[in-house]
Specification:
By secondary structure, the protein is of the alpha+beta class. It is built from 12 helices and 22 strands. Pfam families: PDT.
Length: 439
């Protein structure tokens, strides 16, 4: 490749740049704005007597010969372009601007084609950026937090506790809340994973494995159930009670003690049950929901604190697209999920990795392995044995910033075929008081 510098030996600028008086060369000078210039050079091969003749080796520019080879013509165009820019900069520095540009390299006949001003076209759309999709939350600004349910749900209260003054975004399903964060509709999601009476919410454990969100915190919310009905309705008029399955199970004994001979039907969420009754004016139906739901949907509270156990607490996790940096200046908890080809026989070795390092486990949960639910073991003596394959979810009290936690996971990885860290996050250390029932 030939150099395009002005010192090219075979190039004579005086022979290239001509005045308008030169015969056979039509060059015009157009005055344009100071922002942009475009140099257009039209080249063609000279042919003999017909178009079928072979092209010659010489170029011309509108019948003005420029050198004897193609590379000389290309070099000339490049040098002219550099001269235009240089002349424009010199003119702007001298205060002349675009109006002061009367010649280039001392010749007033350079063919400059002006670019039309941008206001002559419709404005182009601005490309989207991450800031357009989800502004980075500044300190004190509102976060968009997704939760499952409708306003008045316990998940909304958990979102408010986890992120005060946040903008809560209701979702009709748990998976929609995951997708809202993944699609930048929400910044965080707050979802329940276990209850002190009803146990684990298995659906969310499965979704944690299916999606790529990270646990960045936890919040524990005391649950205070109320029996709600339309204003003026008495307990004796009720024929059914509707609520979330967890809420129904958590109030089962109390409803029996109250002497209510009613059918119990499960719906998607507690506050949704109150909304359904209020929307359809159902005077024979009650809902188990929060006191806030009664306020939002104009319901009256027939009984307060009807949960079977006053120590009813639901644990929620906070999910984000990116993990947080583990620290050691406060108590941390880490959640992992793992599996092994040899089934549950490796579980003891995994647990030993934490026991030897004095790491306390706060939870262990097993879920069927969806991709391989059954494992077959051939044995000549007893035939073919069928075993269920499991994924194990474990929470332990340590931060990934600690060496003992890193060493424990390194040992666990030796025994497992699959290991994933769901998150390392601060523990919820806020005190709480048990709910009391008011008859």
């Amino acid at each position: 490749m030939h150099s395009l510098s002005p010192s090219y030996p075979a190039l004579d600028l005086k022979s290239i740049t001509r005045t308008t008086s030169s015969p056979g060369l039509k060059l015009t000078h157009n005055r344009v704005g100071p922002a942009r210039f475009v140099i257009q050079c039209v080249s063609r091969y000279e042919s003999a007597n017909s178009s079928a003749a072979a092209p010659t080796t010489r170029f011309n520019i509108a019948a003005g010969h420029v050198g004897g080879a193609r590379h000389e013509w290309q070099s000339a165009c490049a040098i002219l372009a550099s001269k235009v820019v240089s002349q424009q900069q010199d003119t702007e520095k001298s205060g002349g601007g675009a109006d002061g540009l009367s010649n280039v390299n001392g010749h007033p006949t350079l063919d400059l084609v002006p670019i039309k001003e941008s206001n002559s076209y419709a404005p182009l759309p601005k490309p989207l950026s991450i800031a357009d999709l989800s502004p980075a939350p500044m300190h004190g600004s509102k976060l968009r937090v997704a939760y499952q349910g409708v306003p008045g749900a316990y998940s909304e209260a958990a979102a408010g506790k986890a992120y005060p003054n946040c903008e809560a975004i209701p979702c009709d399903q748990f998976e929609v809340a995951f997708q809202a964060v993944e699609l930048w509709i929400a910044d965080r999601a707050v979802l329940p994973v276990e209850n002190s009476l009803g146990g684990s919410i298995h659906r969310n454990y499965d979704l944690l494995l299916r999606h790529r969100l990270h646990i960045v915190g936890e919040v524990q919310l005391p649950v205070h159930h109320c029996l709600l009905a339309l204003p003026g309705v008495r307990k004796e008029y009720l024929t059914r009670v509707i609520s979330h399955p967890q809420a129904l199970s958590q109030c089962e004994h109390t409803l029996t003690k109250m002497g209510l001979n009613v059918a119990r039907e499960a719906v998607d969420d507690t506050a949704g049950a109150a909304e359904y009754i209020a929307t359809n004016n159902l005077r024979d139906t009650a809902a188990i929901a929060s006191a806030r739901a009664a306020e939002l949907y104009g319901m009256q509270i027939l009984a307060d604190g009807i949960q079977d156990d006053s120590g009813n607490v639901t644990r929620f996790v906070m999910l984000a697209r990116e993990p947080i940096i583990p620290r050691t200046d406060r108590p941390f908890k880490t959640s992992i999920v793992f599996a092994h080809d040899k089934g549950t026989s490796v579980l003891f070795k995994v647990l030993s990795a934490f026991a030897f390092r004095n790491i306390s486990l706060t939870k262990i949960e097993s879920r069927p392995h969806r991709n391989r639910p059954i494992r077959l073991v051939d044995d000549a003596n007893v035939g073919t044995a069928k075993h269920f394959e499991y994924m194990f979810y474990v929470d332990f009290e340590a931060s990934l910033a600690e060496a003992r936690a890193q060493n424990a996971l390194a040992e666990v990885q030796e025994f497992t075929s699959f290991l994933r860290v769901l998150g390392s996050y601060p523990m919820d250390m806020t005190p709480w008081t048990p709910s009391s029932r008011e008859d």
